[in-house]
Design a protein that fits this description.
Elements: E1 2-8, E2 13-21, H1 30-44, E3 49-52, H2 59-65, E4 68-69, E5 74-77
Parallel strand pairs: 2-3
Antiparallel strand pairs: 1-2, 3-5, 4-5
Length: 78
Amino acid sequence: MIFLHLILTKMEKGYITNMFTEEKYRGQGIATYLLKKLVVEAGKSGVSKLWLGASEMGKPVYKKFGFKETDEWLELNI
């Protein structure tokens, strides 16, 4: 099971509030697939930047996808 939640702002930015993959489904590329879909759909909606807070375990997934670490967040320019 994967839970994914996105909040879009009026400033053409999107914040991913929660993304979690149940342990037995990890390592199968499911989260990456959903993240790719999310980025495409966010771009179609006029979003130019996504940002999120990630756990230490999640950071490598997002960095591999292209998110860059800032002082507080991980950000992706679309």
